[in-house]
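Worked example 2:
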Amino acid sequence: MVQRAELRFLSVAGVAFAIGAALCGGTAQAATGSGPVTTHALPAEGAAAHPGAQPNVVGGHKVTEDVPFIAALHGKADQKFHCTASLIAAQWVLTAKHCVDGSDLSFRIGSLHRSSGGQTADSTEFQEAPGDNDVALVKLDKEVQVAQYAKVGDVGEAKVGLSEHVFGWGYENPDWTNLPEDLKTSSGSIEEVGCGAGFGDAFCIKNDGETSGGDSGGPAIDEATGNVIGVCSFGHKPTAGDGFGGYQTVVSKEVRDWITATAGV
């Protein structure tokens, strides 16, 4: 996470993909221009999972309390970090659609460190949300028991003004460099709903940290209920110190019903 800066939709493994228009009321930015561009949030160190993904929290704060459901998504073959994810049931992980491409994945679950600790499990099945919704579910090769699974929110829970916090292993610098080993978090509120033209059904946040490469797939949590209401999807690169992040909702009726039908939760 970068402290108050713009981000893009990129995972650690991805190459920045300029979308040419800043979301959430921003002005259009050409991919070759000097201003930030909006794109997926994937990290640059891993193998590209989808053209255009890359957020991590620039700024924000280091997480010090246990987050039993948090998961770091790695390529199984090379063990390079790609994205952040959440364990929502014993065999199901929730992340962003652009973080998966059908390649075998490995997950480190329940650790605050992306490359050590916790429990590990591998992917066996991939399910993508319908339409443009940037949400995916990954079935694991075994059941993983944790003290707390991430609870997906109720339909319509993501609203303007709602207080939230997010988790991710995104880059720490505004230019999307310096990938952290320790999980980070930022907090704030939803500033706009329906801000993701071209990115599916999304909401945009204003926090004390910016989304950046590596944050993709990480959860947005309703401060009041503790429910997951979205997954990190896009941001601006470089970040601009405005606390921006784009999150794909998981509490629209379409996506929420699909999660229940697929994972049973």
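The two ends are 29 Å apart (CA to CA). Residues 2-36, 45-56 have pLDDT under 50 and may be disordered.
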